[in-house]
């Protein structure tokens, strides 16, 4: 049944007790100019999803957040961190995936950054940041989501860029 991700009342009846809830709603093509949209869409969708999941008694909540901290995209990071805090406050068992940038169809320019990341990961002073804020492929992201759904967390599990990269398409 269709529902409005910004209004839990429109979909809460479809959330089954003991199920896994996967929250993927967010602003497409995030960028610094979309700060207001992050609060209006991403944050509200997270709040409504958490409320519906908690009320239904889901067994596991999966949330796509963003790698943190980072020197850019602060408004996006703040909203995603608020979403994570809502999940934690609701007491839900959850898996939080924290990609930085997902390489997928229609996004060719970031492929030019692959050699830069390769180099930064080998320099001791930039290694940790480059790994935390590394690029992941769409296949890796899908595999990490599938792994999260298939292996429910107890408590709150954070899946970093490095863990997402280790995922392989099922």
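Q: What amino acid sequence fits the structure above?
A:
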């Amino acid at each position: 049944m269709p529902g409005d991700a910004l209004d839990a009342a429109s979909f809460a009846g479809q959330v089954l007790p003991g199920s896994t809830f996967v929250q993927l709603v967010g602003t497409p093509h995030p960028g610094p100019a979309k700060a207001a949209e992050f609060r209006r869409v991403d944050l509200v969708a997270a709040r409504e999803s958490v409320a519906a999941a908690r009320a239904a008694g889901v067994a596991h909540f999966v949330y796509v957040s963003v790698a943190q901290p980072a020197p850019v995209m602060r408004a996006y990071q703040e909203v995603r961190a608020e979403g994570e805090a809502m999940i934690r406050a609701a007491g839900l068992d959850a898996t939080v995936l924290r990609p930085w940038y997902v390489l997928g169809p229609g996004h060719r320019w970031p492929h030019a950054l692959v050699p830069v990341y390769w180099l930064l990961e080998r320099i001791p002073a930039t290694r940790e940041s480059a790994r935390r804020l590394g690029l992941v492929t769409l296949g890796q992201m899908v595999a990490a989501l599938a792994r999260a759904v298939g292996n429910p967390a107890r408590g709150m599990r954070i899946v970093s860029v490095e863990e997402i990269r280790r995922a392989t398409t099922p």
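Q: And what stands out in the fold?
A: The longest strand covers residues 60-64.
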